[in-house]
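As noted in the main text, all predictions were made from sequence alone. Below is one such record, for HTH deoR-type domain-containing protein.
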Amino acid sequence: EAVEIIDHLDITGPLPKMIDETTKFFLRNMKSAMRIEGFSRVEITEYPLESLREAVRNSVIHRDYAIEGATVMVKMFRDCVVIESPGLLPRPLTLERIRSLNYRPVSRNPIIARAMFDMKFMEERGGGIRRMHDEMLNHGLKEPDFNYDSGYFAVTFHGPGEKILDIHPKKVTIVHAIEPAKLALLNERQKGILKYLLEYGRIASEECTRHFNIARDTANRDFRRLIEKGLIEKRGIGRATHYVLKER
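Prediction:
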């Protein structure tokens, strides 16, 4: 149940501005986390951004503009996002048909729909509900809920809450990846140093000797090897010397 609201946005203005402002809103409020997968550091986002953007596009295109003073509203809660559009579904669409994904597309505002398509804000007309559904499932989350709320059509995206690292999206953002060809030239301890850096970001000689139970000379040889292969770089001087993954 959505109880703890984090932020909200009333969508107004020209079409391009509405899409741009809501994208910034989502990026500002969505949580993300890093996870190590093999020899890559990947970023996991709380929601699939494209699914949320699709819901906003649909709301702007299909809302009932005859309802004066009403706006499309986006509400970000601790564990879900709710996007509310003024008006009910245009006939003959029903909630049951939308939920079953068995419907023929109907546009209440065909001129706006055409404008959005011409401005490249839409890839395909009529497939928005299906795209929202598929993007959420592919992100490892529950499919969106569709309901009415006080004269508004509401789409609810259920997020992972505090368990963001428990989801396993099919598509992730690779923040740092180590090439297999370079890994093949390293011993297991040197690979272990890279994994340590992927997880913790930095390592010094003392940490390396303690963590891998090796002599300082051995640690320094490993560091030199990894520097030669272009995988890490040395930072700091004297006692502040440490090593980090080389920027791509």
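Residues 15-29 form the longest helix (15 residues). The beta strands are 5-11, 32-37, 40-45, 72-77, 80-86, 145-149, 152-158, 173-177, 232-235, 242-245. These features were considered when defining construct boundaries for the mutagenesis experiments described in Section 2.9.
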